[in-house]
Design brief:
single chain, mainly alpha, two-stranded antiparallel ribbon, 4 strands, 63% helix
C-alpha cells in the first residue's frame, strides 16, 4: 500500500507541474500586461461602454488605496445582486421545480459565502436553488471571486518586481483579463471534459424514474458541468448538489476524480511559476513550490495512514478490517478520498468527495489544520500565494533578527510598517476562528446545532469556523449550521476572513512598490535553497502550532486519545 500511495502522489504532482509550468508563463504575461494587440483592441469597446471615452492601450493605473476601494465596491455590489437573486428566485425564470426564495439569513450567508470565495453551503442545492440562481448567481460569483483573489496576488507580485512606483495596476483591467483570458478558457475546456465523463449539463425538469425495486426516484437535473469546472478551477468548492463531488452527476468516474484534484491545484501552482518569472528569478517560485510540496506530501501520508489504520474497535465488532470506509465513495476508496480531502483543504476549495465528519480523529484533524495555517499549501487561486508570501516576509524578518542581518526580500527591505501588516493579516483568521468557536460553545444557540457529544462535537464547531474564516467552505457536516445564529456568525467570519487579509496585503504592496532594490551582498539572506526552504516550513508549522494546538487538543487529539494511538 505504501508503494501505491507514493506512486499516486508522485504521479499526481508530476502531471500537475507539467501542466502548470506553461500556464504560469502565460499568467506572467498577464501580470506584466503583455497582452497581444488584438486583445487590447477588443477591450477598447468594453471600456467605452463602461463610460471611458478615450481608453489607451493601458488603462490608468491605481494606487493601492484606489485598488482596494475598487475591489471592495466591486464585491459589495456582487453581494447585493446575489442576495437579491436568492431572495426572489421564486419570482424569477429558470425555476422548473418552483423553489421559493431563501430565508433572509440563509440568503445573507450564501451571498457572502460565494462573494468571499468560500462557498459554505447550509443548504442542499438540488432542493433549494433554481437553475437561474445556480448560473447567474453562484457560477458568476465563482468566476469573479476567483478573479479577485488572483488580482490581489498580481498586485503583490508587481510590488516586488517594480521599483520606485506609486501605482500597482488597474483593478478593472485585472479582473476582466483574468476572467476573460484565464478562467473562462480553462473552465470551458474542463467543462467539456467533465461532460465527456458523464457530468450532466441541461435545463430539463427533474426526471422521475422507476427503480428495480418498483419504487420511484426523482433525479435532479441542471447545468452542472459549467458550474463544476469553475467550482474547482477557482478553488470555490460549492457543489451543484448537496453531495458535492461524491455525487455521480458531479464526479462520475475515477478519472474525473483525479482531474478534479488537478483542477483545484492547477492555477495556484501556475501562479508560483508566474511569480518566479515576473520577479526575474525562477528559483524564487521553485522555492515556494518545494515548501508547499513538502507539507502537502506529509499531510497526505498522515491522512491516508490514519484512514487505513482506521478504528481498532471495529475488529471487536467482528469487522473484517479496521480500515475506515465510513463516509467514503466506493468508487474512489480510501486513497482517492483521503488525497482529495487534503487537496481541497490545502487549497481554499472546499469541494468534497467524502464525509470529513466520518474520518478518523487524526484523519479529520489534518484537513482542519491545513485550513488553520491559512491554506498556504498551494492554497486558493491567488490567496494561497499571497498567504505564503506573508510567511516568507515573516521568515525573512525572524532570520534577520536571529543572525543580525537587515531583513530584505528580493532586494527590498522589510521594515516596521510591512511587519505590522504581515502580523495583522496572519492573525486575523485565527482570531475569527477561536473567538467564533468560543462564542458558539458559550451560547445555547451555538450548542444546539452540535450533533455529536464530547470532543467530536467540539471539532465540528472548530472545523466550521476554521472553514469559514479561511474561506474554504468544506464542513464536518455533523453541525446543523442552517440557523440564524450560525448563518449570521459564519457570514461575518467569511467576510472579515476574506477582506481582513486582502486589505493588509494591498497595504504591503503599496509600501513595497515604492522601494528601490538594494544591491545583493554577502550580508543578504539567501531566499532560495534548502536552508531557506527548511526555515519557511518551520515558520508555517510554528505559527500553526502556537495558534491552534490548544484548540486541537480539545477536539481531534482528545478524540484520538479516547480510542488509543494504535498504529499512529
Amino acid at each position: 500500500m505504501a508503494t501505491t500511495t507514493f506512486l499516486f502522489i508522485g504521479s499526481f504532482l508530476l502531471v500537475l507541474f507539467v501542466l502548470a509550468k506553461p500556464l504560469g508563463n502565460g499568467i506572467a504575461r498577464l501580470i506584466d500586461s503583455d497582452v497581444p494587440n488584438i486583445l487590447t483592441q477588443s477591450e477598447t469597446l468594453l471600456w467605452r461602454l463602461s463610460g471611458i471615452k478615450q481608453p489607451g492601450r493601458e488603462m490608468a493605473e491605481m494606487t493601492w488605496l484606489q485598488y482596494a476601494l475598487a475591489i471592495v465596491l466591486f464585491n459589495l455590489l456582487g453581494f447585493i445582486l446575489l442576495f437579491a437573486i436568492l431572495m426572489f428566485q421564486g419570482h424569477l425564470p429558470l425555476n422548473p421545480q418552483h423553489f421559493p426564495g431563501m430565508s433572509w439569513d440563509l440568503a445573507f450567508n450564501t451571498a457572502i459565502s460565494f462573494v468571499a470565495n468560500t462557498n459554505w453551503q447550509s443548504y442542499s442545492g438540488e432542493n433549494t436553488l433554481s437553475y437561474l440562481s445556480q448560473m447567474a448567481g453562484l457560477t458568476v460569483q465563482n468566476f469573479l471571486s476567483a478573479a479577485t483573489g488572483i488580482a490581489i496576488v498580481f498586485v503583490l507580485i508587481r510590488a516586488f518586481s517594480r521599483h520606485g512606483s506609486k501605482t500597482i495596476g488597474n483593478a478593472w483591467v485585472d479582473i476582466y483579463r483574468i476572467t476573460a483570458y484565464l478562467l473562462f478558457p480553462l473552465a470551458l475546456i474542463f467543462a467539456l471534459f467533465f461532460v465527456s465523463q458523464g457530468v450532466i449539463q441541461n435545463f430539463s425538469d427533474y426526471v422521475l424514474v422507476s427503480r428495480l425495486d418498483n419504487t420511484n426516484q426523482l433525479l435532479p437535473m441542471g447545468p452542472v458541468a459549467s458550474q463544476e469546472a469553475i467550482k474547482l478551477l477557482g478553488t470555490n468548492g460549492g457543489g451543484f448538489f448537496g453531495a458535492n463531488s461524491s455525487h455521480p452527476f458531479e464526479n462520475p468516474t475515477a478519472l474525473s476524480n483525479i482531474v478534479q484534484m488537478l483542477a483545484i491545484f492547477l492555477i495556484p501552482t501556475a501562479l508560483c511559476f508566474a511569480f518566479g518569472r515576473a520577479v526575474g528569478n525562477n528559483k524564487q517560485g521553485h522555492t515556494l513550490l518545494w515548501v508547499m510540496g513538502i507539507i502537502f506530501i506529509i499531510a497526505a501520508i498522515v491522512v491516508i495512514h490514519a484512514e487505513y489504520v482506521g478504528n481498532p474497535f471495529l475488529t471487536e465488532l467482528h469487522a473484517s478490517t479496521t480500515a475506515n470506509m465510513e463516509g467514503k465513495e466506493s468508487r474512489f476508496g480510501i486513497l482517492g478520498s483521503a488525497v482529495f480531502a487534503v487537496v481541497t483543504t490545502a487549497a481554499s476549495c472546499g469541494a468534497v468527495n467524502a464525509m470529513h465528519d466520518s474520518f478518523t480523529a487524526m484523519g479529520g484533524m489534518v484537513p482542519m489544520w491545513l485550513m488553520q495555517i491559512g491554506e498556504v499549501v498551494f492554497g486558493g487561486v491567488g490567496s494561497g500565494l499571497y498567504g505564503m508570501l506573508l510567511f516568507v516576509l515573516l521568515a525573512v524578518f525572524l532570520a534577520g533578527l536571529m543572525i543580525g542581518r537587515t531583513p530584505e526580500y528580493l532586494g527590498k527591505k522589510i521594515e516596521v510598517r510591512e511587519m505590522k501588516m504581515v502580523a495583522l493579516a496572519i492573525l486575523v483568521t485565527p482570531t475569527l476562528v477561536l473567538l467564533g468557536t468560543t462564542l458558539a460553545l458559550m451560547t445555547e444557540a451555538g450548542r444546539s446545532g452540535i450533533l455529536n457529544p464530547g470532543a467530536h462535537g467540539f471539532s465540528e464547531v472548530l472545523y466550521a469556523f476554521s472553514s469559514a474564516a479561511n474561506n474554504n467552505g468544506s464542513a464536518f457536516a455533523g453541525l446543523n449550521a442552517n440557523t440564524p445564529f450560525y448563518n449570521v456568525l459564519l457570514a461575518i467570519a467569511m467576510f472579515v476572513g476574506r477582506f481582513g487579509v486582502i486589505l493588509p496585503v494591498l497595504a504591503i504592496a503599496g509600501s513595497m512598490v515604492l522601494k528601490k532594490p538594494q544591491a545583493q551582498s554577502h550580508a543578504s539572506l539567501p531566499t532560495t535553497g534548502p536552508l531557506f526552504i527548511g526555515l519557511l516550513v518551520f515558520t508555517v508549522l510554528l505559527i500553526g502550532a502556537l495558534t491552534f494546538v490548544p484548540a486541537l487538543a480539545l477536539g481531534p487529539i482528545a478524540e484520538q486519545l479516547q480510542i488509543g494511538l494504535l498504529g499512529l
